[in-house]
Amino acid sequence: MRTRGLVIRRAIKAFLYPLYERRLVRSLDFTQTPHHVGVILDGNRRWAKANPDSVGMTSSARGHRAGASKIVEFLGWCEEAQVHVVTLWLLSTENLTRPETELRPLLEIIGETVDALSSTKRWRIKPVGALELLPPWLQLTLETAAKESGSNDGIEVNVAIGYGGRREIVDAVKQYLTHEAADGHSIEKAAEKLSVEEIGNFLYTAGQPDPELVIRTSGEQRLSGFLLWQSAHSEFYFCEAYWPDFRRVDFLRALRAYALRHRRFGS
């Protein structure tokens, strides 16, 4: 009886959600869509534990593969909503300290995911992060994807790999100082010139608009260092669903929540 009730509830949801999605789409003003959306793709490992396969396997690699398969679908939703830039946080600098038995499969999945995104020939791939910390084979994969997708006309997709917000700011300051030294400027002169705009010129996302909307899945309500500098005026949307379970209706809800907010930019 319990199983039958579960089947009935699922059938009702399957019928109602498309209707709800269409209603959400009709209510949205896509001229108010954020130009840049950042996403913290959280919950892959917890999804795997909550959804064991037919033989009871709950490995983190299985969760990461399920999360990777969601990305192409998500970027399609962003295309429909006329988003121009998407930043996907796939791997933090802290993640690089995980045990080799977990890290190696994760890096391989990321490499496969980047290849898959590039092979669609729909989007421009831009790796962002401390890429020098990654294995040479993955650095080459990222470099190749960026080069081969550079002429595509679609969304610019930042794949944040080996990324940490604090490290990005440190790297930006280092690059600024190196640039000033190469121009023959003293440290005093460089300090005098230093400004918000100058730091922005050396961030991983230099030349792109800051994210107006940042989405985090899995129910966690913190940024964990994601786009620390760029998100100063971002709107945040936290979703309970694990990333592999994130649906188009969840994305539409995030857009609706963004559209309903009055952005004050600190004023």
UniProtKB/TrEMBL annotation:
One GO CC term, this protein: plasma membrane
Keywords associated with the record: Transferase
Keyword presence, Glycoprotein: no
GO annotation terms (biological process): polyprenol biosynthetic process
One family name in Pfam for this protein: Prenyltransf
Gene3D superfamilies the UniProt entry points to: Decaprenyl diphosphate synthase-like
CDD domains, alphabetized: Cis_IPPS (cd00475)
One Gene Ontology term of the molecular function aspect: Z-farnesyl diphosphate synthase activity
InterPro entries: UPP_synth-like, UPP_synth-like_CS, UPP_synth-like_sf
NCBIfam families named among the record's database cross-references: PRK14828.1 (NF011403), uppS (TIGR00055)
Name the UniProt record assigns to this protein: Unannotated protein
Species for this entry: freshwater metagenome
